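Q: Here's a chain of 118 amino acids. Please give me its 3D structure as tokens.
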Amino acid sequence: MLTPARTESFMPSAGLIAFLANTTWLDATPTGAALCCLLLVPQLPHSVYETPSVIEQRMRAVGETLRLGQATVPPPDIGPRLRLLTPTEVALRFDSTPYHKRIPETAPGPCYSPKEPR
């Protein structure tokens, strides 16, 4: 069950961003264009203070910093928040924070900016 969103703003910490688990995969849009997908999930709780509602609020904050919007609509393209670091690794930028998360590319493919050399 989802709890009501907090009214005050919460900025994800470096620790929260570092401990987000992630996976990536390639898919296709209905028109056949390449679609690069990224899934971020929280790790298991590390203490008794990390209740499901606390974890939910943290993940809501992560969603807000990526401007993902409501869960009832498809997520937006977060491409502008990704920067190519190496041919197989990108950095994910979180709005309103000074932190980035390194995301290794799962499989070689079109998940990079065409302006960047491969």
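Q: Can you summarize the key feature?
A: Residues 112-118 have pLDDT under 50 and may be disordered.
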